[in-house]
Structure formats: structure tokens, C-alpha cells
Write a structure and sequence with these properties.
Shape: elongated
Radius of gyration: 41 Å
Largest sheet: none
Number of strands: 0
Distance between the termini: 132 Å
Order of helices and strands: HHHHHHHHHH
Oligomer: single chain
Structural class: mainly alpha
Number of helices: 10
Strand content: under 5%
């Protein structure tokens, strides 16, 4: 009899435990799963590979007083000393010499010579073509940062002479002759211009055009 009671009590306890456990399971809040999306960082922007020369080749048709400002804001040059030089050259071609000077002045002093070299490379063909009004101021700007560039002295002097700016012309041509002693077309042409200016000064007459054709470069 006692064994039966023990067994009945044990069965009752087990049954109660099962009921309690089932209720606990039923009231346990459901665990919600959330899909996790891993954000992937976008790739870094591509590094511009356009050189200053490439930029200038595309920009050159717009290097005029009407379009240069708007076009450069729309398509800025590369952020290099070469790019700044071509930017200054573009404004100089447009006749905006002061803007070109500001660009060069905005560079660190050690890089201004590079910009002057780029500017000279653009101005030289203009001078060879005989465009005195455009090439003269450009060569003068080159000389501000590259004063011993003898060909800039020559072209600046000849442009100034043809435009009647005899004071600057004499200064630049005399400095050119001191640096450039080769007895060729350039030397002889500078001497003829200086001689003509001396004769004009003595006679009180205006400037006389000296041959500007440039068949070869030194």
C-alpha cells in the first residue's frame, strides 16, 4: 500500500512539473529574427589622369575674353604646377594678363618657374606668328618669373618695338644682346631694331617696323 502511495505521489509531482513546464514554454515570447544587411563602402573616386597639356588642348578654343572665365569654372585645370601654368597661359591668351599673374602669384614660389616655363611654351608660337599685341604682354609676364629667358627678352622687345613702346623695347633688346651673342637672324634683327629706335629718337620720328619673320629658332 505504501509503495502504491509513493508511486502515485511521484506520478502526480511529475505530471504537475510537465504542466508547469508546458505553460512556461507557451508564454515565452517568440524570438524574432532580423535580416542584417552589411553596408559595403563605395569604391573611392577615380583619380583624374588628365595632364595639364591635355586640359589645355581641350580648353584652348575657349581662351578668349568672352568664354574663358565660365569655361574654367566648368572645367578647372589639374591641381598641379603645370595645370596652373596652362591656366595662366589660357587667361593670358585671352588678354587677361592680371588674372594670369594672380594665378602664378597664388602658387608657392618654388613652383612659379614651372608655370612661367609653361606660359613661355604657349606664348612662343604666338610670337613666332607675329601676333605682337598678344605675345608682348605674355612674354613680359614670363620675364617677371624667368628674367634670364633670352628668347622671352627678344620677343618682348620686338613686340614692344612694333607697338611703339620704345622704352621697354630698348631695355629688353639690350638685355637680349648681352645674353645672346650668336651672330644669327635674332641677333641681327635686335641690332637693327635698336639702331632704328636710336635713329628715330634722334630724328623725332615714330617707330619703323623691323622684319619679324622667324624662319628658325636657336
Amino acid at each position: 500500500m505504501n509503495r502504491f502511495l509513493y508511486f502515485a505521489a511521484f506520478a502526480y509531482i511529475a505530471l504537475c512539473g510537465a504542466v508547469v513546464a508546458r505553460k512556461i514554454v507557451n508564454v515565452r515570447p517568440a524570438i524574432r529574427t532580423v535580416d542584417t544587411v552589411v553596408a559595403v563602402a563605395p569604391p573611392p573616386p577615380a583619380v583624374a589622369t588628365t595632364s595639364g597639356a591635355q586640359w589645355f588642348a581641350a580648353m584652348k578654343p575657349y581662351c578668349n575674353q568672352v568664354e574663358v572665365d565660365v569655361r574654367e569654372r566648368f572645367s578647372p585645370p589639374p591641381s598641379t604646377s603645370e595645370g596652373a601654368g596652362y591656366s595662366a597661359a589660357c587667361f593670358a591668351l585671352a588678354g587677361k594678363i592680371e588674372r594670369a599673374r594672380q594665378i602664378i602669384e597664388g602658387m608657392v614660389p618654388s613652383e612659379r618657374g614651372t608655370a612661367a616655363n609653361v606660359l613661355f611654351g604657349v606664348a612662343h608660337p604666338v610670337a613666332d606668328a607675329g601676333d605682337d599685341r598678344a605675345s608682348g604682354p605674355m612674354m613680359e609676364l614670363v620675364l617677371e618669373y624667368w628674367p634670364n629667358n633670352y628668347m622671352a627678352l627678344y620677343h618682348a622687345g620686338m613686340s614692344e618695338y612694333s607697338l611703339g613702346q620704345t622704352g621697354l623695347a630698348e631695355k629688353h633688346l639690350r638685355n637680349f644682346l648681352q645674353m645672346y651673342t650668336v651672330a644669327d637672324y635674332f641677333h641681327e634683327n635686335a641690332e637693327r631694331a635698336l639702331k632704328a629706335m636710336n635713329e628715330q629718337s634722334a630724328a623725332g620720328t615714330g617707330p619703323r617696323q623691323v622684319e619679324r619673320e622667324n624662319p628658325t629658332r636657336p
